[in-house]
Design a protein that fits this description.
By secondary structure, this protein is mostly beta strands. It has a single domain, classed as Hexapeptide repeat proteins (UDP N-Acetylglucosamine Acyltransferase, domain 1, 3 Solenoid), CATH 2.160.10.10. It has helices spanning 6-16, 20-31, 223-230, and strands spanning 34-35, 40-41, 45-53, 58-59, 64-73, 78-81, 84-86, 90-93, 98-101, 104-106, 120-123, 128-131, 134-136, 141-143, 148-152, 155-156, 167-169, 174-175, 180-181, 186-187, 192-193, 198-199, 208-212, 215-220.
């Protein structure tokens, strides 16, 4: 996490009050951000040492992105309202990804752990994080393409008191409400995770229904289940994602 001066925060707060057509040149001129065409930013603060926002990105009101070393937001990304993204070496949101509202995505600064950490949050192309989730990326959290962290109130934790381990969710996965993922846990691609599951290890095998405390493979996916994971996450999602 880079340290942000009070002057920069004041300047960012002032820029946040401007309409989008004025925000874009101000970000480029005063902060060196690379901002694409037709980018719309509401009343939100975007603080990163290096920042690239591609074309047609929409960022709503009352979001706070702060203390990020490198921020990359792909084209057509949508960030809704009242989200917090804080700290870390890298935050990368892939093309057509979406973070809806009231999510907290946070990396602990200088964690007291015995291992090397990789504080990176990587959200794949066309993937969605819905509402009220807490994601700790003190170590790496990687979500593949066209996956959904759905419902509400899931928690992904990469650290405990002494050490960290990364968390991975594969592509074309659907993760239900109130999921808990422990350090080092992973969900394979093309899987569905049932409501309230607690994932404590690296699960294996694609096209499975995963559920339970602790979570385990319950059965193979049916044709109806496969339709759920294969359906486009957004109506405007290109066929090549």
């Amino acid at each position: 996490m880079h340290r942000t001066s009070k002057l920069k925060l004041v300047m960012l707060a002032c820029v946040a009050l401007l309409p989008s057509f004025l925000k874009r040149p101000c970000y480029r001129l005063f902060f060196g951000y690379r901002i694409g065409k037709r980018v719309r930013v509401g009343l939100s603060i975007i603080d990163a040492r290096a920042c690239q926002i591609d074309d047609d990105v929409q960022i709503g009101h009352l979001n706070v992105i702060i203390g990020v070393q490198k921020l990359t937001i792909g084209e057509h990304v949508r960030i809704g309202h009242l989200n917090i993204i804080r700290g870390g070496d890298e935050v990368r949101l892939g093309r057509f990804a979406e973070i809806i509202r009231l999510n907290e995505i946070n990396s602990i600064v200088d964690p007291d752990v015995v291992n090397e950490v990789e504080p990176r949050f990587l959200l794949g192309d066309g993937s969605i994080i819905t509402t009220g989730h807490k994601i700790d990326f003190t170590d790496r959290v990687e979500i593949g393409r066209r996956s959904i962290l759905g419902g509400r109130n899931s928690s992904l934790w990469t650290h405990n008191r002494q050490r960290t381990r990364p968390i991975e969710i594969g592509s074309f996965a659907y993760v239900g409400s109130e999921i808990r993922m422990a350090p080092g846990a992973s969900i394979p691609s093309r899987c569905i995770v049932g409501i309230g599951s607690v994932i404590t290890s690296r699960l294996v095998g694609e096209e499975k229904l995963i559920a339970g405390v602790p979570a385990k493979v319950v059965k193979d996916l049916s044709e109806e289940d496969r339709f759920l994971i294969e359906r486009k996450t957004r109506r405007d999602l290109p066929d090549n994602i």
